[in-house]
């Protein structure tokens, strides 16, 4: 059995000049994930379900667990001392970790502490997504520009899924590995080494309730998924949890496509590029899949603000390529 901590140290040799900072940063994220997991597990028993009463910068009501998870990740990163600045879904501005140990740190982190908030109160899987970048500024407190980097500049990225079991999946650009939390010893243990997404699949994940608002290319692609055809095992299965991490994790293991397209009222879709689309795009590409906005690679999109939105087509390469063909032809 290999624990996350052991694995991270072992993998440090992939980076000959590494001083262990990135390893410690990943360790800090793992620690916060365990604390958040503990709270999620007993959510129905503790007074932690429901709204916090605060509306965040996205205009969405924060859940108590959103707030709790945000505090835990920021506090672990702050005391860990390897990250100087955090961009979080729950904070309008970047958070400077201005402590003695962290202010000169080399890395910055973008995070959605608890993704899939609408599922929290009903005991359905939720997640955390994170991206790690090397700062651009040289020392002292970080600046906004440190985090406004394209997805291609990510040093590491990952997600935690708090599901029927809790897993942490991450990449440092050399493949994707998944660790399952063993609650009896409180450790993430390597359970899914070198994950590869199937080239194609039979699952499509999209909120079809928004169908009338979708671009024509997406409507036509959905119809393609639903047509009967033995050779391609259609009609495909429709699966939509409403937690992107959970939908993506399933498609990563089984093969499939997840789409959150633009709609008439949301021309860039709903999801946020910096802390939702980019980390998951990095993971999926590293697993051999594909992630675009229907036209352009997600990781190549210019980042101008931390909460900017982007449409996403992500998953098995052949399925995403075909959806893009429909976009090119009809949208
Ligand atoms: P959140 O970060 O506020 O939870 O929103 C992101 C989530 C994704 O996890 C999920 O796939 C999507 O929003 C669901 O949105 P919708 O209910 O519009 O389908
Ligand atoms: Mg989110």
Automatic annotation (TrEMBL):
Q: What GO annotations for molecular function exist for this entry?
A: fructose 1,6-bisphosphate 1-phosphatase activity; magnesium ion binding
Which cell locations does it reside in? Cytoplasm
Which cofactors go with this protein? Mg(2+)
Sorted UniProt keywords: Carbohydrate metabolism, Cytoplasm, Hydrolase, Magnesium, Metal-binding
Q: How does it assemble?
A: Homotetramer.
The UniProt record lists the Fructose-1-6-bisphosphatase class I N-terminal domain at 2-192
Sites where the protein binds substrate: 115-118, 207, 240, 270
Fructose-1-6-bisphosphatase class 1 C-terminal domain residues: 197-327
Give the protein family.
Belongs to the FBPase class 1 family.
List the EC numbers from the record.
3.1.3.11
Q: In which pathway does it act?
A: Carbohydrate biosynthesis; Calvin cycle
Record GO biological process:
fructose 1,6-bisphosphate metabolic process; fructose 6-phosphate metabolic process; fructose metabolic process; gluconeogenesis; sucrose biosynthetic process
Q: What is its main location?
A: cytoplasm
**Record-given protein name:** Fructose-1,6-bisphosphatase class 1
Q: Which Pfam families match?
A: FBPase (PF00316), FBPase_C (PF18913)
Gene3D superfamilies the UniProt entry points to: 3.40.190.80, Fructose-1,6-Bisphosphatase, subunit A, domain 1
Q: Which reaction does it catalyse?
A: beta-D-fructose 1,6-bisphosphate + H2O = beta-D-fructose 6-phosphate + phosphate
Recorded name of the encoding gene: fbp
